[in-house]
Design brief:
By secondary structure, this protein is mainly alpha-helical. It has a single domain, classed as Aldolase class I (TIM Barrel, Alpha-Beta Barrel), CATH 3.20.20.70. Helix content is 43%, strand content 10%. A 3-stranded parallel β-sheet has the order 1-2-3. About 5% of the residues have low confidence.
């Protein structure tokens, strides 16, 4: 299935469309599976340059049929840091405050993320699985400032708009 997704991304990127790349982890995969996933994304980015950002997030087991012991914030932050180093051809790595909560999302800025994400108008994937964090734009900006950074606004193509 990942081959099909990568093929779709290849076609889209070659047509001039951009997308983000994600990795949900912390259920049945091995560390080797995670590294393979990152490697495949890295190769795709080398070939097309079409990914605007990478976002990793942890499996949210609350309302799913798949059962697995959830990984904690420390494992998320390790994966975040590894992603930044491994995917050095990705300009942007996004923090996953939606699954980790605002404080760990803030800490992720020190573990390789250069993008906090945004206010969610609608989010249907992880919220259905049980993650229900919500933030307003002022809260996001305050978290970024508290972490020692200057908040900036961007569009979907990572062009600054403020």
């Amino acid at each position: 299935m990942s081959n099909d997704w990568l093929e779709v991304m290849d076609v889209a990127h070659r047509l001039g469309l951009y997308s983000s790349a994600t990795m949900m982890f912390g259920h049945v995969e091995t560390v080797e599976d995670r590294i393979e996933h990152l490697g495949r994304l890295r190769r795709q980015q080398d070939e097309t340059g079409g990914f605007t950002a990478f976002i990793c997030w942890t499996f949210q087991p609350e309302n799913t049929k798949l059962r697995a012991e959830p990984v904690g914030s420390a494992e998320y932050l390790r994966m975040q840091a590894l992603s930044r180093v491994f995917l050095d051809n990705f300009t942007n790595v996004q923090s996953s405050w939606v699954t980790q909560g605002p404080k760990i999302g803030q800490v992720a800025l020190r573990y390789g993320a250069n993008d906090f994400g945004s206010v969610m108008m609608e989010e249907n994937v992880v919220s259905k699985a049980g993650a229900n964090f919500r933030l307003e734009s002022q809260e996001i900006e305050n978290l970024i400032r508290e972490a020692g950074y200057t908040p900036r606004r961007r569009n979907n193509w990572y062009e600054l708009v403020d």
